[in-house]
Amino acid sequence: MSFLVGYVISLYKGSQEASSRHTNIEDRNEAGAAYELMHDTRHEPGRTTANVSGVNTSPVDNDDICDAQTTTRYTTPHTEEVKEGIEGRSPESVKRRQHRYRVLFGLALPFALQSLDTTIIASALPFIAQDFEQVKQLNWIISVFNMTSAAFLPFWAQIADVFGRHVTIHSTILIMAIGSAICTGAPTSQFGVLLFGRALQGVGAAGVNVTGHVIMADRVSLEDFAWNWTLSAVISAGFFGIGPVVGGHLTQVNWRWCFAINLPIAVVGIVLIVIVLGKDLVGPQPIPGVTQVQMSTRARRLWVRFSTVDFGGQLLFLSGLTLLILAFTWAGGAYPWDSVQVLVPLIIGAGLTATWLAYEYLMSPPHLMSRLLPLQKAMMPWELLQQKNVRLIFFINFTMGMAMFSVMYFMDLYFALVLGSTPSEAGKNLLYYLPGLAVGAYMAQYATNTWPRETFPPLFLGSITSAVGITVLAWATHVGETSTILGMMALTGHGVGMRMSPSALHGLAFFPDMTVQITCLVSLAVPLGGTVALTMMSTVFNNKSGPNNQDAKEGIMYAFVSLIPFMWLCVVCTTFLGNAWILDDDGHEVAYGNYFWSWAVGAALPRERRDRGSHNTTEAGMRTVVRVL
C-alpha cells in the first residue's frame, strides 16, 4: 500500500509540472513559438540531433546519450508543445475529430447490438429455461454464445485483413440478425434450435467486436485510438448495463422480444455504416510476394486471398477452445469432474490448444510451415505470443471478463432468487454497475490522454478496485448488506472500466503495426474469462445451493469466493508489466521491464520510441535502435 501511495504522490507532482508547462505554452504566440523552435533545435548549446535510420529524428541531450545504458529519454521539440496549445484550432485536429465522430456514430448500433446480445437475456434466463423445461441446462444459453463469440474472434480478425472491413462488418451483422431471428422463432420443444441461434449470434458478435475495434484503430495515432476505444467502451458498457433492464421489461411481455429487438437494430446499423463510413473503411490489405498476373482476374484474386488465411491454425484453435469450453460447461453441473464426458473433451481440447501453439510457431519464418505455405499468414504471429507484456495483458483482460460477467449474471440471480425481485427490478439493480464503469472509463481516458499519459497506472488501479469489489461482494451477499452490494458492484465496474481501453493501448504500443492481432487478443480474453467464470461459478452454485436452489444465498456467496484468487493474482501479475507513454507528437515510448518494481526501488527503465505505421516493430529491432542512440 505504501508503494501505491508513493506512486500517487509522484504522479501528483508530475501533474503540477505538466500544468505549469502547459500554462507557459498557452502564453506564447505562434510567431514566438516558431522562433523558439529554430533557436532550441539548431543553436542551443549542449544539444545534438540523433538521426538513426528507421527512427524519427529528435533532439537529445548529450548527457542523455552518455547515460543510455540506464535510461533513454526523448526530448520533444517545442513545436509539439505549441501544437498541444493550439491544436484545437488546427485543420488537422478538426479532421481528426470529425473522423472520430463518424466512426463512433457509424459503429454505435453494431456495438449496441453486440452488447445487448451479451446481457439482455440475463433477466430472462430463468423464464426461458422454464419454458423449454431445461432449468438444469440454463447455463448453456449463455455458454454457447460466449463459446462462439470467443472462438471466432481470430477468424474474423484475419477476414478483416484479407477481404477488408466493409465485407466483414456487414457479414457479421447479418449473421447476428439471422441468429436472433432463429432464437425468436425457436419452438419450446426444440431447445437445440435456440442454442443454434445463440451460437450464430456469438459468431456474429465476435466479428462485430474485433472488426469494430480494428476500424477504430485504422489510420489514427495511439492517442486518437485511446479516445476512440474509450468512447466506444462507454457506448458498449452503457448497452451492456441496460441490457438486463430492457430484457426484464421485455420478458414481462414475452422473452422472445429479447431476441426480436435485435432485428431492426441490425438493419439500421448496416444502413448507417454504408452512409456514414462508406469511404472511411480500409479495404483488403496488400499481399506480399503476389504478382499482378496472380491477381489478374476476380477468380484469381479471390483464390489468392483465401490462400492467405491460416485455415490450419483456425481449425486447431476453434476445435481446441470449443472442447475446453464444452468440458468446463459440463463439469460439476451435468456430469462429475472425473467423468468420461468431462475428461475426454478436456484432455483433447488441451492437446489441440497445445498443437495450435506449436503450429503457430512453425508458421513463423523461417520455420517449416512458413516455407511450405509461403502465402499463408499466421492467425497469431509468434513474436506476439512470446512477448511478456502481451501475455500479461491477455490475463488481465481474462480476469476483467470474469469480473464483468460474474456481476451481470450472478447478481441478477441474487436479486431474483434471494431478494425475490421481478425481472425488471433485478435489471434496474444491475444499473448500479454502470456509474462505476463510466467513472473508470473516464479516469482511464484521462490517465492515457491527459495525465500522466501512461498505460500502467489505470491497469494497476483497475485491477485493485475489481479485486476489492469482488472480495467484499462475496461477503456482502452472505450477510445481505444491500447497500454494500450495490456499492461493490459499482467498484467492480470501476475496475473494469479502468482497464478496457488501456489494455488494448498497452499492446498496440509494443506492436504498432499489429492492430488486428492485438485487438483480437484483448477481445478474445474477455468472453473467454467470462465463460470460465460463469462455468466455475455455476458448478459451485449447483453444489452449494442444494436441491431446487433452497440455499441460493450460500451458493452465490461461494460462487463469488471462487473468483477471489483470480482477482488478486491479476493484481500481482500487473506489477510485472512494462509501461507505455503517449507523446504529444503522435508517437509513444515503451519500457519492457517490470515498471512497478523498478519504480519501487528507484531504478529507471530504458524507454524505446515507437510510431504507428513504423515497420521496425520487433523487440530485437527496437532494442538495437535504442542502443545505437
From TrEMBL:
The keyword Transmembrane applies. It comes from the Eukaryota. Residues 44-66 are annotated as: Disordered. One of its GO terms (cellular component) is plasma membrane. GO terms for molecular function: transmembrane transporter activity. Residues 48-60 have a biased composition (Polar residues). Gene3D superfamilies: MFS general substrate transporter like domains (1.20.1250.20). Keywords: Membrane, Transmembrane, Transmembrane helix. Residues 103-582 form the Major facilitator superfamily (MFS) profile domain. It holds the Pfam family MFS_1. The chain crosses the membrane at residues 103-128, 140-157, 169-187, 227-247, 259-282, 302-330, 342-362, 389-410, 430-447, 459-478, 514-535, 556-578. It is a multi-pass membrane protein. InterPro entries: MFS, MFS_dom, MFS_trans_sf. It is found in: Membrane. Signal peptide: none annotated. PANTHER family: MAJOR FACILITATOR SUPERFAMILY, MULTIDRUG TRANSPORTER, PUTATIVE (AFU_ORTHOLOGUE AFUA_1G05010)-RELATED. This is Major facilitator superfamily (MFS) profile domain-containing protein. The lineage of its organism: Eukaryota, Fungi, Dikarya, Ascomycota, Pezizomycotina.
